[in-house]
Amino acid sequence: MISCLKAAILAGGAGTRLYPLTAYVPKALIPIGNKYVIEYILEYLRANEINDIVMLVSNNEIDLLKNHIQDGSRFGVHVEYSTAERVGTAGALDAAKELLGQTFLVYYGDVLANINLKKMMQLHLTKKAVCTLAVSTAVPIEYGVARVDDDGRITYFEEKPVLKEYPVSMGIHIFERDVLSYCKPNTDIAQHVIPSLLRDGKRVYAYMTDKRHYDIGTFKSLEEVRQLVENNKLLF
Amino acid sequence: MISCLKAAILAGGAGTRLYPLTAYVPKALIPIGNKYVIEYILEYLRANEINDIVMLVSNNEIDLLKNHIQDGSRFGVHVEYSTAERVGTAGALDAAKELLGQTFLVYYGDVLANINLKKMMQLHLTKKAVCTLAVSTAVPIEYGVARVDDDGRITYFEEKPVLKEYPVSMGIHIFERDVLSYCKPNTDIAQHVIPSLLRDGKRVYAYMTDKRHYDIGTFKSLEEVRQLVENNKLLF
Amino acid sequence: MISCLKAAILAGGAGTRLYPLTAYVPKALIPIGNKYVIEYILEYLRANEINDIVMLVSNNEIDLLKNHIQDGSRFGVHVEYSTAERVGTAGALDAAKELLGQTFLVYYGDVLANINLKKMMQLHLTKKAVCTLAVSTAVPIEYGVARVDDDGRITYFEEKPVLKEYPVSMGIHIFERDVLSYCKPNTDIAQHVIPSLLRDGKRVYAYMTDKRHYDIGTFKSLEEVRQLVENNKLLF
Amino acid sequence: MISCLKAAILAGGAGTRLYPLTAYVPKALIPIGNKYVIEYILEYLRANEINDIVMLVSNNEIDLLKNHIQDGSRFGVHVEYSTAERVGTAGALDAAKELLGQTFLVYYGDVLANINLKKMMQLHLTKKAVCTLAVSTAVPIEYGVARVDDDGRITYFEEKPVLKEYPVSMGIHIFERDVLSYCKPNTDIAQHVIPSLLRDGKRVYAYMTDKRHYDIGTFKSLEEVRQLVENNKLLF
Question: I want to staple B202 with a disulfide (CB 3.0 to 4.6 A). Which of B113, B130, B146, D200 is the partner?
Answer without folding.
Answer: B130
